[in-house]
Amino acid sequence: MNQTGGYAIQTSALTKEYEAGVRAVDSLDLKVESNTVFALLGPNGAGKTTTVSMLTTLLPPTSGTAFVAGSDILEDPAGVRRKIGVTFQETVLDDALTGRQALDHHGQLYGLSRAERRERAGELLGLAELEDAADKQIKKYSGGMKRRLELIRGLMTDPEILFLDEPTLGVDPQNRAKIGDHILGLKQRKGMTVLLTTHDLDEAARLADTVGIVDEGRLVVVGSPADLIAQMGDDTMHVQGNAPSDGFASAAAALDFVTEVAATDSGVQLGVDSGDRRLTEVVRLASESGYPIETISVSKPTLGDVFLKYTGRELRD
Amino acid sequence: MSAALIIWNKQMGKFARNGQESIGSLIQPVLWVVMFGVGMRSLLEPSLGNGDTYVSFMLPGIIALTVLSGATGGGMTWLLERVQGIVKEYIVAPIARISILLGNAASIMTKALIQSVVILVVGVLVGATVSGGVLDWVASLALVLLFGIGFSGIALAAGSSTDDIGVYHMMIALLQLPMLFMSNALYPLDSLPTWLAWVARFNPASYLVDGLRQTILTDALTMAGSELLPLWACFAVCTGFAVAGMVLSLRVFRSSLG
Ligand SMILES: Nc1ncnc2c1ncn2[C@@H]1O[C@H](COP(=O)(O)OP(=O)(O)OP(=O)(O)O)[C@@H](O)[C@H]1O
Ligand SMILES: [Mg+2]
Hints:
Chain A is α/β, with parallel strands linked by helices and 317 residues long.
């Protein structure tokens, strides 16, 4: 671990070009501290899955490299593989097996003893509420059941670092919360490091110690959810008008109570010291600068506003 | 337990539990023996005299055909598992790439060996004579295995090289049928036109066929002509074919990951 200075994951100029000249991941420098949950956020096509694929040795980088659990992904991929668990974005289960068989097979691949496999599979099937379905063929599972099975499969081997690419996609809110709690529990009890991607910003805010927002292959901001939200000012104002917003945006930026201005695909987002007090001023400024307002709203800033600020896009999926 | 064995075990479990697949795989060789052996026998009996010998003569070819189509099916399964992403579980696991391929080749060959036994049993029922001591049987088993691993490697390579089922089948068809028909399986080497005899000498299937005729189906030797491929060459070629097939599959699989 000495080369990586206590980081579970450290990338240096990690880059992937699927086609020459088009960078799906562009010189990514990312550090994930041990025993933390790191959430990688970004719009569709931002390069999250590509990043996870490179870190899990599924895909070789075009240039740059990364240390994962103390091993270089290029020089010692086997060392990396021994220490990680992965849940891929798409469902990749052999549906001719039963849930229990899939877990057992997975444990075998990582050299777990029969007793360990049986014990962990039983425990994890309980966690995912799959006991009743455990001995049914996976082809008979619902989408959410498959997802839950995949998640616990990644946990079978007690990895040092767990990679979860959109782990709770298609999972109902109740199971989502349960899985989230379990991830936090693993971090606390076993000292596990987790890198996850998600489109659920509330989930990211709840689980992650650190979030990183990527856009077009580049890391645009990193920080704790609380810090990132605090940067947004005390209140966030969403102003939506039906004219080009440039004039209004630059006029707003000149106001001293405005801490943040971000043009987004649906209007302008302002960070202000006190939304209720500044509302009339902002409305007046908008009409003066030729930006007729259609809707305006004030709220406490959320991670969603942070996301909007840095990517200019709302997160939908 | 080694990873190849784990994967072999999983594939065999699926095979055993899939009643349709396992029963179908037993019926198919029976049909082939009846079609090739019995059908052609009645056609050729008037000119050949001894039809039983012809069945013995044909059996190695039928075994080769079974191995070829078993490997083709296995390569297809591999392609599907790759496209579905099932193979990703193996790629990020702490196991060697080659053991993933070997596990699959081994399961293909286990199924093909079971089928080969059925072929021999049915062959004997319709008139073939099997012969040989323990060593001959071990030798013939090894030859079938080596040849089968070689072609499994080719099928796995083809299944790694494309995500398109149609392209896969076209690639395999270009190899599979010539391997059977441009060999000594249907006619002895010395009765083939010179050019075809030369092609057959470069065809690993010929070495499997003549190897089997010299170990456990010696009755066929009266029909096999004067130009028998020597047994040592049969082993050398089948071993080379096995190694080459697996190396090829590893290369193509590796490059498919980039
Ligand atoms: N196999 C591939 N071949 C070519 N281009 C690819 C391939 N996989 C991904 N890309 C491209 O790389 C970019 C990043 O894709 P990636 O899947 O990493 O995004 P993502 O952030 O995971 O998106 P999502 O939120 O939709 O899962 C996209 O522009 C995508 O079109
Ligand atoms: Mg993705």
